[in-house]
From TrEMBL, chain A:
Gene3D superfamilies: GHMP Kinase, N-terminal domain. It is found in: Cytoplasm; Nucleus. SUPFAM superfamilies: Ribonuclease PH domain 2-like, Ribosomal protein S5 domain 2-like. Transmembrane segments: none annotated. Pfam families: RNase_PH (PF01138), RNase_PH_C (PF03725). It comes from Humicola insolens. Residues 32-164, 191-255 form the Exoribonuclease phosphorolytic domain. Keywords: Cytoplasm, Nucleus, RNA-binding. Its main location: cytoplasm. Belongs to the RNase PH family. This is Uncharacterized protein. Signal peptide: none annotated. InterPro entries: ExoRNase_PH_dom1 (IPR001247), ExoRNase_PH_dom2 (IPR015847), ExoRNase_PH_dom2_sf (IPR036345), Exosome_comp_Rrp42_subfam (IPR050590), PNPase/RNase_PH_dom_sf (IPR027408), Ribosomal_Su5_D2-typ_SF (IPR020568), Rrp45 (IPR033100).
TrEMBL record, chain B:
Keywords: Exosome, RNA-binding, rRNA processing. Belongs to the RRP40 family. This is Ribosomal RNA-processing protein 40. It is found in: Nucleus, Nucleolus. SUPFAM superfamilies: Eukaryotic type KH-domain (KH-domain type I), Nucleic acid-binding proteins. Pfam families: KH_6 (PF15985), Rrp40_N (PF18311), RRP40_S1 (PF21262). It comes from Humicola insolens (Soft-rot fungus). Residues 27-66 form the Exosome complex exonuclease Rrp40 N-terminal domain.
Amino acid sequence: MPRDHEPSLNEKQFVTQALQENLRLDGRELDQYRPLELRFGDQHGVAEVTLGKTKVLARATAELTVPYPDRPLDGIFTISTELSPMASPSFEVNRPTETEILLSRLLEKTVRRSGALDTESLCLVAGKQCWSVRVDVHVLSHDGNLTDAACVAVVAALRHFRRPDTSIAQGVLTVYTPAEREPVPLSWLHSPFCVTWSFFGEEGTTALLDATWLEEQVRVGSCTFSMNQHGEICQIAKLGGVPVDAVALLQCASVSLTRVKEISDLVDRRLAEDLKRRDKGGFMAELRAENDR
Amino acid sequence: MATKHHVVLPGEPIDPSLIPTHPKHPLRLGPGLRHIPPEDIVPTVAGQLITNPAKNSMWIEYNSNRYIPSQNDLVLAQILRSTSDFYLCSLSPHTAPATLPHLAFEAATKKTRPQLSPGQLVYARVSLANKHMDPELECVHPSTGKADGLGPITGPGCAFDVSLGFARRLLMARSREEGGVGVLEMLGGEEGGGLAFETAVGRNGRVWVGSESARTVVIVGRALQETDRLGLGLEGQRKLVKRLVREIK
């Protein structure tokens, strides 16, 4: 496995020294995100998130399958992440690096364990048939802060996705094709987002949001908060690193809430725009008998 | 003076009327062109064809993503590790490392040579480069023994990545007229408010900017990267410099 490209000593020293003057290389504020762009594909369930130069693509799909024997009333929901060699030659397919394992664990705890997707609604016939929803996350370009970008992509893809409509009559399950009945959205309870803080300095005194790849190589600690816009925290992950003052962490949490509300608004707006774009004319347009000339 | 012609694609033969002629000098082909005897001159890369009738030479200006070392190029290398006789340096990530001998520095003997650690940036010249061997670097002029500004980079500053074409334009002798790049002069002049900094431009797409003030380094680095990314002309560069000096405190 080719070793990852390390930044030079000069760059590392400069980044640390500049942060002591609260100066970042790209001129951002310490708590400012890079411009976050969210785009949807033509197919339902494809979301692409661009955070500066970091680019993540998430794709949600569903298929019919048998539920787990110990959970006959629940559907199946899995998130799989893949850091492709497109992002960096040091990533290999099917050989998970530490970055990939941490990323998939954080996404798992944030989206799956918090119950953002109601798995009971995915069950069709208890013990026999259920939907298996699967989200594939592909990292196309890595310039820092994969966690936040990947979380936005997963949430947006799941909210954008439409599964085929079903009905049960006298114990017989019918699955309708998109031509017969419009696909329906998933049963979504709340939208959690991740906010990752990076700490610098000897005692972790300087904290900043949305680190670029270079800043990630230099940081001495990091902490990821996952919460939704109502302030309900799903998880907080601080995996080692420099010990940080508890009061500082509480301040980070409250700033994270503001950011999560902004991200949540952005996702809502983009989803509404996409819905409007697909629904040209609406109901009346379908009922019109005029020909296009 | 060099004349610029239209953009050419690899494989299409050059129109004979564009090929310059000279009574005394033979025709010299520069990078990107290949001679297929007896008469065809065919480009191997996509780019703009430039001819210089005075010296009877022609070449192609192109912008590629991968740096291919060529002799006498000035590059900004990063030390990976040290072996018994030389340092292994990286010119661009995930490519074969270049060798820099321990004694290829000014006035270096086995006892007085500079001790460089992994991760250190070095400004060097490519002394040997061909497609069959790993490239070799040196930090001293081979005949005079003087460094001429080459050697390890010390002092506060940071390295920035730019595209290869932009690095080449920065390294031109008359970068403002021929390359259309005046941003460094503007930053040190009145538009930038007389910032004090020094630069080391590597043909491998890395530029080091050094200054006592971190704010200056950030302004210069961002000016270079934005000019490169947006492809700004001289007027655009002037506006960019003024905006950056105003925005970054």
